[in-house]
Amino acid sequence: MTPPRRRRRHPGREPDPAPRKEGEGRNPERLFLIGEGNDGAAGLDLVTLIVTRAEPPGSLPPEQAAVLRLCETPLSGAELSAYLQLPFSVVSVLLAELLAAGLVQARAPIVRQALPDRSLLEAVMHGLQRL
């Protein structure tokens, strides 16, 4: 499954006449209910890669099922937060619950190693030129 694509604005679309105030139209209690009050983030950060380990059971809340669908390929916590349009603090609580249930696996991000020594690269290049 590929992550959802960004929606582009329509060029002929008029902007909203009255901009909404921050928090207007949203239910602030909903974020607490999504995480069920759990505060254990299990050491997750924005760059931790999350990947699904099992099929979602039917009894999962829709937010957790969405996380499992999105994480069929590894995604970072920041990407999940953006795709779900939820704050990272809420996503980290959801991920902690899924980790505890064994439905997802958290991996450290892949770090690029330092560049190899220049003399090694030159030796390889000269060896290839001799072939």
TrEMBL record:
Q: Name the source's superkingdom.
A: Bacteria
What segments bear the compositional bias annotation Basic residues? 1-11
Q: Which Pfam families match?
A: DUF742
Compositional bias (Basic and acidic residues): 12-29
Chain positions covered by the region annotation Disordered = 1-29
Q: Which InterPro entries match?
A: DUF742 (IPR007995)
| Matches recorded under PANTHER family | DUF742 DOMAIN-CONTAINING PROTEIN
Q: What is this protein called?
A: DUF742 domain-containing protein
Species in which this protein is naturally found: Streptomyces glaucescens
